[in-house]
Amino acid sequence: MTSFNQLSLAAYIKKYACLNTKTEDLWIALEEVSGQPVNKLMNSWTSQQGYPVISVKVNGGTLEFDQSQFLTSGAHGDGQWIVPLTLCVGSYESSQSYLLEEKSGWLDMEGVLDSTAADRNSTWVKLNVYQTGFYRVKYDDDLAGRLRHAIQRKELSVADRFGFLDDSFALCMARQLPLTSLLTLMVAYEEEFEFNVLSNLLDMCYKILRIVADAKPELLDSIKIFFIKLFQQSSEKLGWDPKEGESHSEALLRGEILSALAFFGHDATCKEGWRRFQAFVEDKSNPLLPPDIRRSAYVAVMRKTSVSNREDYESLLNIYRETDLSEERARILGSLPSCPDPDIVLEVLNFLLSREVRNQDAVLGLGVCQEGREVAWKWLKDNWEYISETWGTGCLITDFISDIVSPFASIAAAKEVEEFFATRTTANIARTLNQSIERIHINAELVKSIQCENDLENTVAALAQRYCHG
């Protein structure tokens, strides 16, 4: 059977074969064949920036939708789109489509939901099925809870598990969802083993730690306990050693999870990483530390490094100096800034400017941890003239700004950055500088929002205690 797209394109080509056309002509041709408002729909997407977030809730047997413009700043935008929604209810066999043409809309779910009240009150609803649409979804507490249970029962696809988590994190960072809700959702992923989902979850954990360090530093230890236990099952399944027949994604995931556990301070991971590192230092052919997990051991070493405990750090630098493999040097450079000792952080940053590090590799070691942030900013200012002269004509100089400046989270820090670069801004860094300063302001607002979450302390304590005694 000839498809709708084929018919539409055939009609378009026939009508405009010898004429100049505009984009709107194609939309009109598609509209004529489909009977749908294609031209109006596409204009709503091509004539404005950004994309929507669709808020959804259940009211009896009705799904109610409301759209607003998604802005990472948390501000309220005026955008409005015609949004083709997809949704499924309780299973993927009940997939539905709905065209949201106004700011708000509703869909009668009778006939889709089971007739019993119990089912109507518990059946999960997932919008943007398989994440094929260009919009985020914000569920009310009731629907979010249903989806959490669906994830724990393994009823959602990989794409939808990823999408629900990704949307929730983005909404939290934009202050549209409390951190307590996000942390509670993360519990549903403790039996997750898919690479894309877990890798995204790990990245979120790092970002949450950074923002909590500014907003509620007294909660850091408890949140780390929660994060460690969150990845316990996947860590135990993957272990330290490669397994026969495992996939490439499993090998990659092993390294990511072990590196994260070392960074979070998991004692057993740090001890095992240190043991394998020692064996590797003594014999580079030792199979205990294959390339896929070396960064994990290196992070474990750097998390324990200090001015008074630097022997392993020196050993790691020696490995860097002795190897001629660019991949190994990259692993080491990426691990060095994990150290929490500000004095070592300064040494690492100065090492990046030395002749021992290629100019194109220096940016690999800029991602210092929270404890080294102020040292890194002072170092950037002290060395800006040299950095500007060395990297100023290329694109890498923007990494020095974004990696060191963006993590700050106070208006005072933003002002200090603006004042320093007031006479030092060039066309090459202007855009990145503006984006980094904007990120500081967004971080500052997020910090204030998290500080006002009344139940955050209780939620974090309950999550940590749940794992400590579970």
Automatic annotation (TrEMBL):
**Which organism was this protein described from?**
Kalanchoe fedtschenkoi (Lavender scallops)
Source organism superkingdom: Eukaryota
| Protein family per UniProt | Belongs to the peptidase M1 family.
Question: GO BP, one example?
Answer: proteolysis
What Pfam families is this protein classified in? ERAP1_C
Q: What is this protein called?
A: ERAP1-like C-terminal domain-containing protein
Residue limits of the ERAP1-like C-terminal domain? 124-441
Q: Name one GO molecular function term.
A: peptide binding
Which Gene3D superfamilies has this protein been placed in? 1.25.50.20, 2.60.40.1910, Neutral Protease Domain 2
